[in-house]
Write a structure and sequence with these properties.
It is built from 14 helices and 19 strands. It is of the alpha+beta class and 508 residues long.
């Protein structure tokens, strides 16, 4: 059947090419000089949903265009690094002091000030809904002189610097914030690219900002088009209409030159949650039988066409430190001490998942086959996520397949582990509570970011896997397209960076 699918996709691509001229924004001219040949064209998956408000998920677009910036940025390990703040220190258990750069101007010429930073952070706490990174966090910000800001929380929070790296806490000029609560980022950021025009849900134009405090941009500007249709985005890459393309569908990737597609590991794990509270999987030995029945390689090949990574743990390649910590003797001991699988013959189980992510129903079919081969009798329940979430959280299923983000906006996985496997976790699909796991989670949550916190996080992961509360299946990837004329494009698992000051264009 593969040749037929390939031919159909090729026909669809050919049709899409006829429509591309109406999909892509026209190239502009940068304030620093240059013409269309110096610019980068980008085809993005989703249009803005909240008028590019930095308090919404649209903030990640502003970050990927490098037009809005935060006090802090994260390195590959998730550790905080300077951005608009040059450094920080912990004044007391609940207060941090952030020192600001003294050479930053907003795109409208206004200088960055401690008062404006404190005002923006205060506005974020009052936004409705508030930025995800502040969910459950009582935060206050006040100027400390002209070049520093004090950030306080109601309780001790070792992740305050990481929280301030969230694109939803980007700092914009005073004129960006209207009296009606609306926020206009156009011409009000601090990044190397100035947002000059927004064409609703069609596209956006950005020009190089020559007053940037850091390394100047290597291209004259960015021309963005929002192209939800995957076939059209792929065609844009093939025809050279776009230099950079978000999220090439896996089924379309074989139709593009291999040198133009790059697979980026995502902090997202496809996981089988097992109900540890009632039903067959309340027995650890039956959970072990389910775990041993699974063939991860077959899931990757069948549902993801080989474009995913078979899971060895809950935390995948997007967290580069996770794999190395699994060599620790305590980690391996936790897995070696798991119960032996029980013999299974005709054990009925209910398996739930949802249709909103296209691959999950196919994963469910493959898992059903694997589990039934091991002796389970599987009944599937597949619905839209909005219709199935409440039942899943109530423990209505013996097993549930979920594509789960393992790193939240702080760049740290402890909140995910606590939510899913803590005794008071708000997303505990496994109905799981274990004193040893809870102690490991509490230890990790109390440590500041760095090697000790990562080691404690790894021990918590091992404790969860040792109990077979969940069986990680695979780690997802996203396919990013880059034309032959562009280089220096970021391939960021957290989807915060895309076009950077190091991005350049040349002859194809």
């Amino acid at each position: 059947m593969f040749p037929i699918r390939r031919a159909s996709a090729a026909l669809a691509l050919g049709t899409s090419v006829l429509l591309l001229s109406g999909c892509f924004a026209a190239s502009g001219t940068a304030e620093g000089g240059g013409d269309a040949g110096d610019r980068v064209s980008v085809a993005m998956l989703l249009p803005p949903r909240s008028g590019l408000s930095p308090f919404s998920d649209d903030a990640f677009k502003l970050s990927r265009w490098r037009t809005a910036e935060t006090l802090v940025q994260l390195d590959a390990a998730g550790d905080a690094q300077p951005m608009l703040a040059t450094g920080w220190s912990r004044v007391d258990p609940t207060t941090w002091r952030f020192e600001l750069r003294d050479d930053v101007t907003f795109h409208d010429g206004t200088p960055l000030s401690a008062g404006q930073v404190a005002d923006v952070l205060t506005r974020a706490t009052r936004a409705s809904p508030p930025p995800r990174i502040l969910d459950g966090v009582e935060l206050t910000a006040t100027p400390d002189g002209e070049d520093a800001v004090l950030v306080s929380t109601a309780v001790a929070d070792p992740l305050v610097p990481q929280r301030l790296s969230s694109p939803q806490l980007s700092v914009l000029a005073p004129d960006a914030y209207g009296p009606d609560g609306r926020v206009d980022p156009a011409g009000h950021g601090t990044g190397p690219f100035r947002l000059t025009d927004v064409q609703g849900t069609a596209g956006a134009t950005l020009d190089r900002y020559d007053g940037y405090w850091g390394e100047p941009a290597g291209v004259a500007g960015i021309d963005v088009s929002f192209v939800p249709d995957g076939t059209a985005r792929t065609a844009a890459l093939r025809t050279g209409t776009a230099d950079v393309v978000e999220a090439i569908p896996p089924g379309q990737a074989p139709l593009v030159d291999d040198e133009l597609v790059h697979e980026v590991p995502m902090p997202r794990t496809n996981t089988l949650y097992l109900n540890t509270d009632r039903g067959p999987f309340a027995d650890p030995a039956v959970r072990a039988a389910a775990r041993e029945a699974l063939d991860r390689a077959a899931l990757v090949a069948g549902a993801y066409e080989g474009r995913a990574d078979a899971a060895e743990g809950l935390l995948g390649p997007a967290l580069p430190w996770a794999a190395g910590l699994r060599d620790d003797p305590a980690y391996t001991a936790a897995l070696e001490n798991r119960p032996e699988p029980a013999p299974v013959d005709g054990v009925p189980i209910t398996l739930g998942t949802f249709t909103d992510r296209a691959e999950l129903p196919e994963v469910a079919v493959l898992l059903e086959q694997q589990l039934e081969a091991a002796g389970f009798v599987v009944t599937q329940d597949v619905r839209e996520y909005s219709a199935i979430e409440a039942d899943a959280l109530d423990g209505a299923f013996d097993a549930f397949i979920l594509s789960r983000a393992t790193v939240l906006d702080s760049g740290d996985p402890v909140a995910y582990l606590a939510s899913d496997f803590g005794c008071a976790g708000g997303f505990n699909l496994s109905q799981f509570c274990d004193p040893g796991v809870q102690a490991a989670l509490d230890e990790a949550a109390g440590l500041e970011a760095g090697p000790e916190r990562r080691a404690a996080t790894s021990r918590a992961e091992a404790a969860v896997l040792g109990a077979d509360a969940a069986v990680p299946l695979l780690h997802e990837r996203v396919i990013q397209g880059e034309s032959a004329r562009v280089d220096g494009v970021a391939r960021d698992p957290r989807e915060r960076d895309l076009i950077t000051t190091g991005t350049g264009v040349g002859a194809p």
